[in-house]
């Protein structure tokens, strides 16, 4: 039965991991895999997470299922974190949360919901976007289209984006990155979010906001500006949230699908359909990651500790962005790569060409995706001089 099955190329980023491991260059640098790293190159367990897990281990009394929508305690802390503690959307009971296996799981729930409940609607993603967006939506049977996001000079093409949004057929779905755009790092300003809102309302488009990096851009509330604006001003919004990154619990796969409807009654209708989608995908979500998040956000001491750690991570990344540009100044390349300091989040669309990326890998042991996307968390004050020298070499 399997004789006809062909081998397909492996995931490009996972392939980088293997190639990096085999590289014997003592100065090798991994800028590929999208996880946070500290100054020693490790992805640490946050202190608040360690303490929360110790409490859970001591007090846990059951391993039973938590239901298709997940644990209510998780929803009760994630909804105000995303939409705001004084959100009029929550007060009106217009939003509900469904715990999911990571942000990816939330996106899959959203895709299947759209495919079954909004048949024949297309979905529009930024060009470029996180590559898995393509796979998730097309595998659900949704027609996928692109709108421009970055121009030929490696700058945010907001005018091109807005012009494209104005031509999208009414009722289609538009995927927007709430903050820390993956892979480019270019985010919308508050003024630009307002203009996007106007077009969404005028064209009767349904926004699906991917919120994978809350807290990694400017701050927990600052990063949520666009999400909260759309949820409060539009009748219907889909939000996919992830706690895997900002709590550093990648392997626990902790996400959430948040649906916003016109009123509480419509929300109950939508919520019932989402439960079916979740049931058909994985029945019940994993519990541990959500329990960690709940334990932290329900305790003032742990919340303070977690916020401080998240701020340290964010400040480190933003400092490394500025230091990277400064390291290129002796080579006369600081202006060319100035955009890196302007971007936000873990990723940077450097503007390096595929050929330059290949040279960095083959000649210097510096690994990143061939699109030129680099994980800024892979920078360190120890490797920045080496990185700058290598980038100068491939810019000759």
The ordered string of helix (H) and strand (E) elements is HEHHHEHEHEHEHEHEEHHHHEHEEH
> What fraction, in percent, of the residue positions are helical?
40-55%
Secondary structural class: alpha/beta
Which range does the strand content fall in? Answer: 5-15%
Low-confidence residue ranges: none
Principal-axis shape equals globular
**Main sheet: strand order:** 2-8-7-6-5-3-4
Largest sheet: 7 strands, mixed
Termini separation comes to 53 Å
Count of DSSP E strands? 11
How would you state the average pLDDT, rounded? 96
Q: How many helical stretches?
A: 15
InterPro entries: Aminotransferase_I/II_large, Asp_trans, PyrdxlP-dep_Trfase, PyrdxlP-dep_Trfase_major, PyrdxlP-dep_Trfase_small
Protein name: Aspartate/tyrosine/aromatic aminotransferase
GO molecular function, one term: transaminase activity
Family: Belongs to the class-I pyridoxal-phosphate-dependent aminotransferase family.
